[in-house]
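A reminder before we start the practical. When you read a complex entry, don't treat the lines as separate problems. The point of joint prediction is that each chain is placed relative to the others, so the output describes one connected object in space. Small molecules and nucleic acid strands, if listed, are placed in the same frame. In the example below there are two entries. Take a minute to note the order of the lines before looking further.
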Amino acid sequence: MMLAENVVELTIASQLEFIDLVTTLTDNVTQMIGFDEETCYWINMAVRESVANAIEHGNKYDPQKSVDIRFTIGVDALRVTVRDYGEGFEPATLPDPLDPNNLLNPAGRGILYMRTFMDRIDYERHPESGMLVSMTKRRMPKQPDEGDPRQDAIGN
Amino acid sequence: MQLEIRERTVGEVVVLDLVGKITIGEGSVQLRDAVGRLLDAGRQRIILNLEGVTYVDSSGIGELVSRYTTTKNQGGQLKLLRLPKKIKDLLMITKLLTVFEIYEDEETALSSFK
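Here is the predicted structure of the whole assembly.
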């Protein structure tokens, strides 16, 4: 039976060294499902920003807390969720990096980049602990003469 | 090493040729340290040549902003040379493109200090 979605999951410790591992997997997933090179690059960056936020601001580098990353490959879209185990935050309270008073701040641009490069970003507090960030990128409509790249890559 | 930094001196200007990634952690720290050492040594005319930079994240963009403001606050000038398109895109998205002095040509960048 063909599944409507394929899921790839990865859990890492709260160490920056593991970010490259996540982005390598991100590239594999986005290339496998047929995003163009430019889109793959920016999805890679959105995932990098989200995982870095989870490690730095969510888990505060606590080695006992992990970061869970899940790629859900749907027919119409790729959804990437990143969960940390920290105290959570309210996105609406974050300073606007485009406010002239904040332009020269050394930090605070990651979420803006995530919003720019993905089609949709949702934040929710996990019922147990931490934040769950969900990022969605729509897949381009398939051309009539193309096969389904997932068929070859995933073997469904 | 995430970021390789080669230092050249042209008259009173120091050019740092950056090769690699400026991302959260090692790359950002290397850039901070390199510019900090120059300022400590009284070198206040600095060009960052970004032609060899393959990847920058928000932490790297923040580091460029920090080095710019630190240098300016100490009476110096920090300018950018040969920005790859994706870095230019990131600066544009965050309205930073007009904050920095950016040059495509090294001679023009060097002469801008005179």
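Discuss with your neighbour: The longest helix of chain B spans residues 58-73. What might explain this?
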